[in-house]
Specification:
This protein is mainly beta and about 400 residues long. The chain has 1 helix and 24 strands.
């Protein structure tokens, strides 16, 4: 079984000699988004600075090394990162509905405010996904956005106009609507898979039974074409549902072999990391975590809810990186060739507070996006921030 320790007090090699088994959850667990306490007040933003050079990428599994550094500061409840082929990156701010551009030289700019966002609770401007580089001419230059409106959650796409450093929001098209919304469990992550389809995580919006209802889009991972139509090879003809039985999935990623992974908030006991198969049922609300029931797929990894509350997920250089929101740490997971996981190590516990998203950074590094300014965290000077972490080849296990 994979184990975890907090390696910040150990040498890097020793950190990988995993010594502590995962703790069992108590009966009183934190709220799904890690509401470990509401603390108000946001410090004044501090200046941004350009990314520093990271080591050249190396094949194989990797681990964090060195001292992380700020790439951007002064963000307001940021939620998602989308890197562009130009070298710029876009960041969504949940409550302001603003999209920010981070240029390659480290300048932080406003791109625009997304219209129709009704922020409240855990809803607002959520996931971003840039059109893949190999998209058709009709689907190129679109930015895909998951947002909470006054009546539903929905996915829209917006033309990015202008050039890096002067991007603007242009024409807009609806891609997918009538996704259930609530004050919590809104899902919200969107990403293009290796197959060029758009995958969308949808929470159960507080209606747990919907996750087992094949006719509901709540508690599901969806798969659609870039224009919102349903792919002909989806598990059920005419339905965007790709997998079901989810509570509040907020992280999706694909490893080098093409396996799809998803991170999911549990309720009172277990948060989950799952390998997603088309048409599979992951058990919520009948089971939480491992259920050992033939009709459901068990997670390949589970954490006590106080230790994770997982949000963003990224696959970088053969390694999975999981953003711990309520757990206030980064989880580093080494996938096993047979489909499970090997070593699982935690980094940066309590160093940066709530971590909302992770993404591949420049030059083989990792980016982490904090989320301390939404009323649920403890803002520090400069919060919220985008942080760059160097990655080096795994030296033990």
């Amino acid at each position: 079984m994979a184990r975890s320790i907090h390696p910040s007090t150990l040498p890097l090699a020793a950190a990988l000699a995993l010594t502590g088994a995962l703790g069992l959850a108590g009966c009183a667990a934190p709220a799904p988004e890690g509401t470990e306490g509401i603390r108000l007040g946001t410090p004044a933003p501090s200046p941004t600075r350009p990314p520093s050079a990271a080591p050249s990428p190396a094949p194989g599994p990797v681990q964090p090394a060195g001292t992380p550094r700020d790439v951007a500061t002064g963000l307001n409840a940021p939620w998602s990162i989308a890197r562009l082929p130009s070298g710029s990156a876009l960041i969504s701010e949940r409550d302001t509905a603003r999209i920010r551009e981070l240029t390659p030289d480290g300048t932080l700019l406003d791109v625009g405010v997304v219209e129709g966002v009704a922020a409240g609770g855990e809803g607002g401007l959520l996931g971003l996904a840039a059109a893949p580089e190999d998209a058709s001419a009709a689907d190129a230059d679109w930015l895909y956005v998951y947002l909470t409106s006054a009546s539903d959650n929905r996915v829209v796409r917006i033309r990015l106009e202008g050039s890096p450093g002067s991007l603007e929001l242009g024409a807009r098209e609806e891609v997918l609507s009538q996704l259930p919304r609530a004050g919590n469990h809104n899902g919200g992550r969107i990403a293009f898979g290796p197959d060029g389809r758009l995958y969308v995580t949808v929470g159960d919006a507080g209606r747990a039974a919907s996750a087992q209802d094949a006719g509901s889009l709540g508690g599901k991972i969806l798969r659609i074409e870039p224009d919102g139509t349903v792919p002909a090879d989806n598990p059920t003809a005419g339905s965007p549902v790709y997998s079901l039985g989810h509570r509040n999935p907020q992280g999706i990623a694909w490893d080098g072999s093409g396996r799809m992974w998803a991170a999911e908030f549990g309720q009172n006991t277990w948060d989950e990391l799952n390998v997603i198969e088309p048409g599979a049922n992951y058990g919520w609300p009948v089971v939480e975590g491992t259920g050992d029931r033939a009709e459901f797929v068990d997670p390949v990894m589970q954490w006590a809810t106080r230790d994770a509350s997982p949000s963003g997920l990224a696959s970088v250089r053969g390694t999975l990186f999981l953003a711990g929101l309520g757990g206030e740490r980064l989880w580093v997971v080494q996938p096993a060739a047979e489909g499970g996981v090997g070593d699982v190590v935690e980094y940066f516990r309590d160093d940066y507070g709530r971590i909302r998203d992770v993404a591949a950074g420049p030059d083989g590094s990792l980016w982490m996006l904090t989320n301390n300014t939404d009323g649920r965290g403890s803002p520090r000077e400069g919060d919220d921030r985008l942080i760059q972490v160097d990655l080096v080849p795994l030296t033990g296990g």
